[in-house]
């Protein structure tokens, strides 16, 4: 049976529907997908939200008051049985590369299965398809995932920033871990993840001296092999981030985490169209974004063209 395009029908919620949101790739991808949850709940507050994520991402959602369940995607699992146990009325496969999600959802007889028109098996497994292109459109990824709400007419407007939560105990532990560092603390992530560019270790050495002379206490929070702090888990890292007065990071999962925690963030980003702020800037209200100067092709050293002194006014605005 050929899947039906969005333009051909409108779906409606009657209240209490269980929606499974699937995003099984990187942390940043997951966090910029959270506006789908925010938008659904703002219009249908009785919706029961579940997420299908990788094990490394699941701790992000601990203690989130709007999430009813977090389920782990593993390789070789009986995914159809897992989805059947969750028993959603709607599934949105926000990460189109994991095409097995739609296949399993169809096997589990999920009534409404929304996916991008990418891959034959996914197309045949969906009931509703998104045909809009993601690349080369100049749209933020959060807008691209809001397209999944087109059947309900909820895809327009600016995306709501994602929100993450920490317990008082986690915040206290983070403050304890950083107790030997004076305020104002500048938490630093020295490398990006995935395709994102990041400054070299030599640049960070110079930058830390500049930050210190300007009154900041720079603290290398990650990655763990470049930090002097004892290893911790993701929740522990989030607690340490919250104990800082600002965060500086290249485009990475931690940058999106900082934004979702409501922390002041200076995000260093590249120029390539598919990795630029237009597409991947963290969502939030306490964020400054700086792009490194051209030429853009030199990803390994391009960000070293940033003058650390030029970042100080941005940090001052955050402080």
Q: Can you walk me through this structure?
A:
The protein is of the alpha/beta class. The chain has two domains: 4-152, 3-Layer(aba) Sandwich (Rossmann fold); 168-318, Rossmann fold (3-Layer(aba) Sandwich). The chain is 30% helix and 17% strand. The chain contains twelve helices and twelve strands. The chain has helices at residues 27-31, 35-43, 79-86, 100-107, 120-125, 141-146, 168-177, 201-213, 234-242, 253-260, 277-280, 308-318, and strands at residues 4-5, 18-22, 48-53, 69-72, 90-93, 112-116, 128-130, 185-189, 217-222, 246-250, 265-269, 287-291. Helix 10 links the parallel strand 10 (246-250) and strand 11 (265-269).
